[in-house]
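Support reply, case 0932

Customer input (verbatim):
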Amino acid sequence: MMLIDKFIKKSAEFMRRLNNVIRNVIGHNLVIAYHYSYTICYLTGARTIRVLRRLGKRLARVLIPTGRLLYKAVDFLLLKRIRALGSSIKQEFILFVKGFPLAAQRVRSGYKSSPLTGIKVSLLLPFFAVRRHKKTLVKVFNIATPAAALAALIMTINFWSGMTFALAVEYDGQTLGYITDETVYDNAANLATDRVINPDKSFEVQRTPKLTITVVSKSDIIDEVEVCDKIIESSGDAITEGAGLYIDNKFEGAVQSGSELNDLLNSILSSYENGSKNERSEFIQDVDVVDGLYPISSITPIQDMRKHLTSLSMVDKYYTIVKGDCPILISEKTDMTISELRSLNPDFDKKIFPDVKMLVQKAQPYLRVQVIRTVEYDETIDYKTQTVKDSKQYIGYSAVRTNGIEGKKHIKAEVTLIDGVESARKILDTKVIKKPVDKVVVVGEKRVNNSVSAAGDGITTGRFTWPLPSCRMISSNYGYRGGGFHSGIDISGNGVYGKPVIAADGGKVCEVSHGGGGYGKYIIVDHGGGYRTLYAHLSSINIATGQKVSKGQLIGRAGSTGWSTGPHLHFEIRINGKPVNPNSYLK
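Our regenerated output:
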């Protein structure tokens, strides 16, 4: 308290001096304001100190008697007894120490009387000691008995807390162990059955063992895996340690060495790798190697295991293309996507001909492998074709003004292969190395003169244009086919009936037929120099014999007259009366 008073006086003295300095420097008004602020703060602080002093005195008046009362209670209940016990133990210890000379004196006195008396006294010494320290022993017993009872209670609680009810499993006359419930044994029996390849039915798991309720330690309870091992152990000496192979949770067999089995699996994976840095391989199925106990009958030599895993689970299957097949139709018939067909058959789109076999199912090994590989390669960029119309040329005229040039791009992709066959490709990065150059094609836009009476100029250019502008599909080519030699080309497609047929080049009509015979309605135009063209199976004819025609002039319409299986145009080019392949002359 004196220190606080001194501190308050010192602070007041300091503030008065500071007040004089501020009055001289700042001014009277500010000094007054500062003085009032200081006074308020001082009074607040002083008031707080007084309140704290009063509160401390009141707490001391309450707590000190309470503490004294608690000390007296503890002293009465515990400390007093401890002091008394300590004093008693001290006195008994002194008495115990003094008892040794007394005991020695009694033994000597007994031996002086007679040796038998000395031996008797020696044997009675413990009883004398008990009688001498009887009171102290009673006190120790009174204190030790509750403590021992408490310790026994704690040990009993601890023992029974570690115990639980369980089922003792007796299998084939042997106790396998203790389980929590029947489902553990059922699961263990299933594991044991699945682990064994048992063709001769020599191994059989009892499904109804003898179960007895008992109380055991929790640490004695075993799980289904341990029960499974004990079931297999109980089958006799035909048991050995091995490594079992499971594929999609199906047991395939076991080998004696787990390291050999792992080496076999790694060799199968590596057989699909090409040594690239950025590749990883993995099995498609879920493959697990489980070490454990297996019957000798289920152990397989590592060579037989390799043969089993690499055997074919599916063989190659093919589809034979028939006439009229196209990619979409083949896809529907084989229930495969076009991309799948292309992955199995390189140049798929270029091999669609009758009697060609397409691979629709590739042979698959029993253990399938997927390899994901990052590859880099160059690929061509197709050029685009630009069409320029020329009003001076008839429809069907076509000429290349600028040849297209393919570009090149560098591609980085992630390729997924299943059993060595690519199944997916993900493009990671593309960089254009060379840009393509577009192809420019000039086509005619001059319409065909549909007037029947229109007279052509008969001028021969020496170059033949396509005779059926509305369709460019060849359904039957020049050459030998099923029934014999085909002397021209058949042009057909959907909606071709009645479409305009034009003169492939200028000339003079030398022959017209309006029906009868295999050609049906047909026209023959003479172009001079031994060149003639024939247009057959027409539905109508727009010109007459002896009439001059111009290149691209309408001369008739496509039909299906004569020996025809459907609407089309049969077109021939003849040189000195002999037919030649029109594809070599047409643009």
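We compared this against your earlier run and they match. Two observations from our side: The longest strand covers residues 421-434. Residues 193 and 205 are 7 Å apart (CA to CA). Please reopen the case if you see a mismatch on your end.
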